[in-house]
Amino acid sequence: MEHRDALEHLLFRMADDALIYGHRNSEWTGIAPLLEEDIAFSSIAQDKIGHALALYTLLGDLGHPDPDTLAFTREERQFRCCHLVELPTQDYAIALMRHALFDYAERHRYRLLEQSSYAPLAALAQKVRGEIKYHTFHASTWLRLLGRDGSDESRARMQAALDLLLPYALGIFEPSPFEDELRSSGIFPGEEQLREQWLTEIIPLLEDAGYRIPPLDSIEPCYGGRSGYHTEHLQPLLDEMTAVYRIDPNAEW
Amino acid sequence: MSRTVTLRSLDPRIDRLGIPQEQSPFEGVPEGTHLETYEVFHQAKRGARHIHVGSIHAPNPELAMVFAKEQFARRSECVNLWVVRSSEVITFSPEDADLFETTPEKSYRDASGYKVMQKILSWKQRLQQEQTRQSTGNQ
Description:
Chain A has 253 residues and is mostly helical. In chain A, 64% of the residues lie in helices and 0% in strands. In chain A, helix 2 crosses helix 3 (67-73) and helix 4 (92-113) runs antiparallel to helix 6. The longest helix of chain A is centred in the N-terminal third of the chain and has 27 residues, at 35-61. The two termini of chain A are 33 Å apart. The model of chain A has no long low-confidence stretch (mean pLDDT 96). Chain B has a 3-stranded antiparallel beta sheet with strand order 2-1-3, covered by helices on one side. Chain B has a single domain (5-89, 110-134), classed as Ubiquitin-like (UB roll), CATH 3.10.20. Chain B is an alpha+beta fold and 139 residues long. The chains are: A mainly alpha (253), B alpha+beta (139). Chain A binds chain B through residues 27, 30-31, 34-37, 39-40, 43, 88, 90, 134, 137-138, 141-142, 145, 149, 240, and chain B through 11-14, 16-19, 35, 56-60, 62-63, 66-67, 69-71, 74.
């Protein structure tokens, strides 16, 4: 198959983002601030694990092992997720701000992929459109409620989360060695275009929700995740996530 | 005499999130900070009526929609939801339940007493026979 390496790189970074982000968000199950919000956030986390499953399945179709093997047996260095999704979230403000920054990027990524020349990926992008629309609706509602419509404390905590997370969020768009190939083959228009589209939507949205945007030119994006260099938070997450699987990798579920 | 026992959680999330083991006693929710309740109405198919399915707490109408979707449209078929502030539902007072007390005795108001149903049925039958005759004639 043509452009195989480029396509696989794209699929791995998307799948690993979805898996690690979904796992991180599931850490709030049972302890989110409100009962109803607990269920909503857990459900969104579950959707993300579903996206990871769909993407690993596409990799399986290209000759890779089954999704469980891909999710639970790879070394930390083999993961292609960005640093943003690895961060632990001690404060729900951080969880919500990351949710907004990441899911608006997801929305634009899948929108662009609806036109992908790789038909299975285009079909998946169309399938998850409604889910991601809901995820961004959830995120933007909380942004406004805790920002413009919130208290001094909620605004301050959300602003601190934004200041902390922006360099990581810009790291989502770390260019891959395959940008030209992905673009010219029509598989994906590339991280640069995605970043521009994301900025065009997320910046006015954040400003309208009552937040200050630090000068973007002065921010150094957190790169490395896409080539397997991760924060110190990923390995402990993988240890915990794979603990049950490692007891008996051949168990039938 | 009761003894105080401190339970250490086995849940890894408790440590992960740095939740204090010793919780200060719950002092109640300050006046005016309760979330509002919303009544949720679920529509299973386009054109079907919305059916009341329960209520939820939410800080504002938008999140009421989000939470309603999760509580009541996560697993069953759904095309739309209504949420209505519980405080905006106009209702009889429970003390006025006696207004309805004699209702079961008013069977004379039941539509079953009317003879018109027979007329409708026989008309439908005639119509059907006529249609059958016509379609046989066309063949």
